[in-house]
Amino acid sequence: MQSEKTKHYQRADSRALSILATMCGLSDLRSVGLELDEAERVGESVRLHVTWAGVGEGWFRLRRSTRETDENRISISLEGGNLDRPFTFLIRRLTKALSGKYLADVMAPFALLGHQDRAVQEITPINTWGSVDGWHQFLCDHAMERKLFETFRFDGPNTTITHGDLECRFITPRARFNLPRFFNYPDPLGGDTDASESFTDLQDLDVIEGGQDKLEEMVRLEVAKSGDLGPVFVNSTCVPVIIGDDVEMVLAECKAECAQGLYHMSARTVQPIDITIRFLDAALQRAKDAGLVASHPDAIALVGFNEVSGPGNLVDLLTSVGIEVTGSILPDTSEQRMANAVKAGLLVCNPGKHRIPIMNKVFRDLDTQRIFLEPPWGIEATVQWLTAIGEALGRKAEINEKAQKLANEILVKSHQNHVLGFVIEPGQENRLLASDSATGLPVLKMVLSLGFPVKICIWGQDAPAAIDSAQRLGAKLEGTKTTIASFTNEKELDHELAEVRAVFSEFFYDNRLTSRGLAQFSAGDFRMGFSGAIWSIERLQRLTNMPFYNRYSSYLGLANGRGQ
């Protein structure tokens, strides 16, 4: 018998994919490079992902039609709502193949999945907040990865329309105003920084009669305002999804009036990044048509680096050693950013287990060389990063000399006074050391390079696993100012943290630390490059020297009343 979790979400295996491809009339299109490579059942709908060599990729959603007499008939839409000619052909192909079939027919292959294929509820602080073991969890990969896609921001001309009621507008992730967060994210989220958008403000009568007319009126108004300047995004909250507004139809009727595309995201959009990629596909093609590709062969463009002003600005850093930068793209995104990026003869990418697949998708049809280098976290790493870029440009010796000169001019105190702490579980050591982790920051390497002594506390309930973690860390950190200890209860953790002044935590306002008189720091307290290293040192020094938490810890007890 299927669990409730399995009923709501299933991913197709190879057998189910083969059945679906045949049913949907897609199997015979393999000869022209089209592949049905993913399929999901999400609630009472099915999502099909196709990859078409030389054309593009996209997610199709199949759900019950709201316009047929028989509600079990199938409605087909392309997520994002921007239908170009090849995908219009696929919509027609799917419609013909599924004519006379019901949604239950499309869902049937998922019933063949075995027990091992069923989705498993992962134990994370997201779905088990306040768990018994929560007191020793200070890292949360799930939260960091969950919000990664919200760091992608449209900073060029664009319009976002929220289609829904007033209440839902203020709880959607794209509400566009500062919200308190449960976690410390490494980069700003799009919803925190973007300007306010237009809003359909559905009322009771709209819920009864439908909100499509109101949406179409607003879309046409916004399209008339934006013209050719930028794309228009429609973000549907739950209400228009529930009442069955056909937003894709509205967008299709207005598409011709918006040169840079109309895109739709909603509560049913499982992967919003696909919409960003579809926009960038179109922007890249326009840049190619304009003859911009590699027009500055000796220059570079940055891909995947968060853009900051002041300390940590990588464009200023690269310019200071004589490297021309045509622009940067991702997470900040716009038509102009794409046009500037493709001018470069070399794309310098910020690696990461989630960023790399996105970058490879965005630039899959671009022949420009891409390099993935360890990012410039710290002074030594910055010298290595600049030198590697210089080597790719055929200027290794020149750039290395300039980078070393800049590094030598920076006076960094080799030893900081205060100890920084990390609390981890066995197996999490790579989160502290790898630049392709959930935050993209090798935080342990960074703080050691800045001169801070470190203490690592490992949860030791599973003694053999804790010992293995300690040995792996010890081997990688030999010769550094690092102490490694283990703990099995809160009293032992208190003892181990006695010499520590601040602890790394991804939980916002961590009262487990403040009640112990400790400050907290997170990935957002670090910046790249030479100037970024100095900024990071000064930031950590201010945190560790601040007496507030130590002085008032007895007033900052936990919910159970425990304080120091």
Q: Can you describe this structure?
A:
- The longest helix is centred in the middle third of the chain and has 17 residues.
- The chain folds into 4 domains: 114 residues, 2-Layer Sandwich (TATA-Binding Protein); 113 residues, Rossmann fold (3-Layer(aba) Sandwich), CATH 3.40.50; 130 residues, 3-Layer(aba) Sandwich (Rossmann fold); 137 residues, 3-Layer(aba) Sandwich (Rossmann fold), CATH 3.40.50.
- The two termini are 51 Å apart.
- Helix content is 37%, strand content 18%.
- Strand 2 and strand 3 form a beta hairpin.
- The N terminus and C terminus are likely disordered.
- The chain has 24 helices and 20 strands.
- It has 564 residues and is an alpha/beta fold.
- Helix 9 runs parallel beside helix 11 and helix 16 runs antiparallel to helix 17.
- The strands form 5 sheets. A 5-stranded antiparallel sheet has the order 1-2-3-4-5, with helices on both faces.
Show the helix and strand layout.
Blueprint lengths: L3 H5 E3 L2 H10 L10 E9 L2 E8 L3 E9 L9 E5 L6 H13 L5 H5 L33 H6 L6 E2 L4 E5 L2 H4 L20 H4 L4 E2 L4 H6 L2 H15 L5 E5 L1 H6 L3 H8 L7 E5 L6 H17 L6 E8 L10 H7 L4 E5 L2 E2 L1 H7 L2 E6 L5 H8 L6 E4 L6 H14 L3 H13 L10 E6 L4 H5 L9 H7 L4 E6 L3 H14 L5 E6 L2 H7 L3 E5 L6 H4 L4 E3 L7 H17 L2 H5 L12
Parallel strand pairs: 6-13, 7-8, 7-9, 9-10, 11-12, 11-14, 14-15, 16-17, 16-19, 17-18, 19-20
Antiparallel strand pairs: 1-2, 2-3, 3-4, 4-5
**What's the CATH class of the largest domain, please?**
Alpha Beta
Q: What's the CATH topology label of the largest domain? A: Rossmann fold
Structural class: alpha/beta
* Uncertain parts: 1-7, 115-121, 173-177, 558-564
Superfamily (CATH H level) name of the largest domain: Glycogen Phosphorylase B
The portion of residues assigned to helices is: 25-40%
Shape descriptor:
globular
| Ends distance | 51 Å
Largest sheet: 5 strands, antiparallel
